[in-house]
Design brief:
Blueprint (H helix, E strand, L loop, with lengths): L3 H5 L4 H27 L19 H25 L8 H18 L18 H29 L5 H27 L5 H23 L8
Protein name: DUF998 domain-containing protein
Keywords: Membrane, Transmembrane, Transmembrane helix
Organism: Tengunoibacter tsumagoiensis
């Protein structure tokens, strides 16, 4: 028997809550790294990657931020799968965003290595946990970028969603570009404005996830 929610196109409360986790998690991460980067003594947010906030006094806050953000994004991936029941991207979109969430949890568990003079007085070094952290960081950007392209392909099939499809493609390209420029700048310039470059990618990707979550929470069935 059809329920009143189905007749009006409303989504189950559980699905809406899971989708809301995407907006909360993505925006939480942006807010935390911006605040910590601004108040941490001896830390320059323009020059130092956000992962370095895991190091030094108060590093547990950034580790916790990564893990909480990752759990919320995993919940969002589940909600996305429930929302996109069929059609293009209904399987790989949630999988890729699930990997995106898992990468946050991993970077919170495997702490980064000291780099670029931070923490002050600690020499740069390479450790196994730090190497795993870096690999998870690449997975984070890559999985998000591919998810943008996969979901853009889904939206491109709907004339009413073409603008969103182009926004998704633009986001994916910007995330890929920021990741490449970050690595090249880090290697070729021995640092440079890597903190700024990385934060551009983080903010662009986080805003896309948050807006996607809000969009999917809409009652309209046209994007289901």
């Amino acid at each position: 028997m059809e329920t009143s929610a189905q007749r009006t196109g409303e989504q189950p409360v559980a699905t809406r809550l899971l989708l809301a986790c995407g907006a909360i998690g993505a925006l939480l991460n942006i807010v935390v790294i911006l605040i910590l980067g601004a108040i941490r003594p001896g830390y320059n947010a323009l020059l130092i990657p956000d992962s370095s906030l895991e190091l030094g006094e108060g590093g547990w806050i950034q580790m916790t931020n990564y893990i909480v953000t990752g759990v919320l994004l995993l919940a969002f991936a589940i909600g996305l799968r429930l929302r996109l029941c069929t059609g293009r991207g209904s399987t790989w979109g949630p999988i890729l965003l699930g990997l995106f969430g898992l990468s946050f949890i991993g970077t919170g568990i495997f702490v980064t290595d000291p780099v670029l003079g931070y923490p002050p007085g600690v020499p740069s070094m390479t450790t196994i946990p730090g190497t795993i952290h870096n690999l998870l960081g690449q997975l984070q950007f890559n999985s998000l970028a591919v998810a943008c392209f996969v979901l853009a392909r889904r939206d491109a099939a709907d004339p009413a969603s073409r603008r969103w499809a182009w926004y998704s493609v633009a986001t994916g390209l910007l995330v890929v570009a920021s990741s490449i420029v970050f690595v090249l700048t880090f290697i070729l310039l021995d640092g440079g404005p890597v903190g700024l470059i990385e934060r551009i990618g983080i903010i662009v990707s986080g805003c896309w996830v948050a807006l996607l979550a809000i969009r999917l929470m809409s009652k309209q069935a046209s994007i289901a």
